[in-house]
Design brief:
With about 500 residues, the chain is an alpha+beta fold. Helix content is about 30%, strand content about 25%. The protein has 17 helices and 26 strands. The strands form 7 sheets. It has a 9-stranded mixed beta sheet with strand order 3-9-10-18-15-14-13-11-12, with helices on both faces. Helix 3 packs across helix 12. Bound molecules: adenosine-5'-triphosphate. The site of adenosine-5'-triphosphate (ATP) has 16 residues, from strand 10, strand 15, strand 18 and helix 13.
Length: about 500
């Protein structure tokens, strides 16, 4: 089968109820998407799994949930008001507007992220690049700030300008002292936040990959300023294999190299903290069913790096439109805390018990992940067309599957069998997201459930009336087992958590 394109995925998502174009009845709204009845479940499961793994199961990270609109000074201190901008190419004739670095990358295959407007102008002129829609010459480039502005308070003309946050990150710094004191955090520690972010992207595209409203899951991970080299958890991930693409490899036109973290550390390819966070993040994806071969870790080139970042690596995924950033992990040093100290006049340093001195911790890593890009990753890696079944099987990890169990009466014209299926549904629905379905043939219902990623099918039939047992069908293999109704809940729980093999959970039906 030819590789699924991003357009195919958008069509599939719309057809099955995962994602719709926003306000389609009004012609849609570029850069905005609505999650449907299955999409919202998958997205919530992704966010819950992320929170469990990164916050609840760790002693060193706590979460917060800050407001979306915040004091405008926060964005002055962070540097967003002044420099959160992209360079725009505008066509004077057809009014087309394009993000300059993406256009140049596409046309000339060179990475110009971080280049100045004059450099972009000269590249455009030198290579005679024209408007892709009407072939006119572009106007000189313009800087375009990506933050959405709004007013706060009832008087529009006099009220202060505020911004919709372009990232979730800054409140981990603004609330830093409160969180550290109340949660009694000791270095190294992290503060996590997940939620909506807004960017007025010049050219939103590639379905959910680049939109104007999206969600992020971010951590600011702080270390002692004198202990930035050693990561105390390095042994947990030392054997993880990553596909490394360092700045040097890119400059020398070499290919990425797969190696274990311990070898990369020996070769001084990467710092311990970066290796730790990149591995931890890739493992989160692969533990939830994503395919390791579709990931690589790419170091930013010098000119690409933000001015405050000491080192940045992206976790990239092999999307149908190329290797692209899924998550950025920057070492931001003490830049942010110091900026907020400067702009607020408040002391955000903490007391170091060992040296009895005040210190400003370093953000040794800021793993910053997009929920919607993660959604795409899980969908692409789960999607399979099954030739024998002649339908798509969405092999999502059971923890992510929008619906865990589809409950079906084998036939819908036999009252007792329907009644039993209803009983089973009522038994399960409080613990698992279940779907009761009695319309169409049983084969059709299984196919529908496969395409929606439903992990298990549970069918009541004539035997159920005799012995209180049901058939449980596995989505990925179509294998079936027979199991007693009173064992169902516990068995399904274990199957979702991978504590039990399906073949061992009941009597295999031949
Ligand atoms: P890009 O270079 O692709 O524009 P970025 O470097 O600006 O991304 P960050 O500021 O590092 O992105 O944001 C962290 C993460 O948030 C990204 O890795 C991505 O997963 C997600 N993200 C950023 N912008 C968007 C967007 N417009 N739509 C969807 N997700 C986004």
């Amino acid at each position: 089968m030819t590789k699924l394109t991003i357009e195919d995925m958008a069509i599939f998502c719309k057809k099955k109820g995962f994602v719709y174009p926003n306000s389609e009845i009004y012609g849609g709204f570029s850069g905005f998407w609505d999650y449907g009845h299955l999409g919202v479940e998958l997205k919530n499961n992704i966010k819950n799994e992320w929170w469990k793994y990164h916050v609840q199961s760790r002693e060193d990270i706590v979460g917060i949930d800050g407001s979306i609109i915040t004091h405008p000074k926060v964005w002055e201190a962070s540097g967003h008001v002044e420099s959160f901008q992209d360079i725009m190419l505008a066509c004077p004739k057809c009014k087309e507007k394009i993000r300059a670095d993406h256009f140049i990358q596409e046309k000339l295959q060179v990475n110009v992220e971080g280049h100045k407007a004059e450099e972009i102008n000269s590249i455009i002129k030198k290579n005679k690049l024209k408007c892709p829609k009407c072939s006119s010459d572009f106007e000189d480039t313009q800087q375009f700030n990506l933050m959405f502005k709004t007013n706060v308070g009832p008087k529009e003309d006099k009220s202060p300008i505020a911004y919709l946050r372009p990232e979730t990150a800054q409140l981990m710094f603004a609330d830093f002292k409160l969180v550290v004191d109340n949660a009694r955090l000791k270095l190294p520690f992290g503060i996590a936040q997940a939620g909506r972010a807004f960017r007025n992207e010049i050219s939103p595209r590639d379905f959910l990959f680049r939109s104007r409203e999206f969600e992020q899951m971010e951590i600011e991970y702080f270390a002692h300023p004198e202990q930035t080299n050693k990561c105390p958890f390095i042994n947990e991930i030392i054997d993880t294999e990553l596909n490394f693409y360092s700045a040097e490899m890119q400059q020398k036109n070499k290919k990425p190299v797969k190696m274990e973290v311990k070898d990369a550390l020996n070769q001084r390819l990467i710092s311990e903290w970066h290796a730790y966070w990149l591995s931890t993040e890739q493992n989160w994806f692969t533990n939830l069913g994503a395919k390791a071969e579709n990931f690589r870790v790419r170091q930013h080139l010098r000119e690409e790096k933000s001015h405050y970042a000491l080192d940045t690596w992206d976790l990239e995924y092999n999307f149908p439109f190329g290797w692209k950033e899924l998550q950025g992990i920057a070492n931001r040093t003490d830049f942010d805390l110091k900026q907020h100290m400067k702009f607020s006049g408040k002391d955000l340093s903490i007391f170091d018990e060992e040296t009895k001195k005040k210190i400003v911790p370093h953000v040794i890593a800021e793993p910053s992940l997009g929920v919607d890009r993660s959604f795409l990753v899980f969908m692409f890696d789960a999607y399979e067309y099954d030739k024998k079944r002649e339908n798509v099987v969405l092999k999502l990890h059971p923890k992510l599957a929008p619906v865990k169990v589809g409950v079906f009466p084998l036939v819908s014209n036999k009252l007792e069998i329907v009644k039993k299926a209803r009983e089973v549904y009522d038994l399960l629905k409080n613990e698992f997201n279940c779907r009761y379905d009695c319309s169409g043939s049983i084969g059709r219902r299984y196919a529908r459930a496969d395409e929606e990623g439903t992990f298990l099918g549970c069918t009541t039939d004539f035997d159920t009336l005799k012995d209180e047992s049901v058939t449980l069908r596995h989505r990925d293999t179509t294998e079936q087992i027979r199991i007693k109704i009173d064992e169902l809940k516990e068995t399904i729980r274990k199957l979702i958590n991978n504590e039990l093999k399906f073949e061992e959970a009941g009597k295999l039906v031949k």
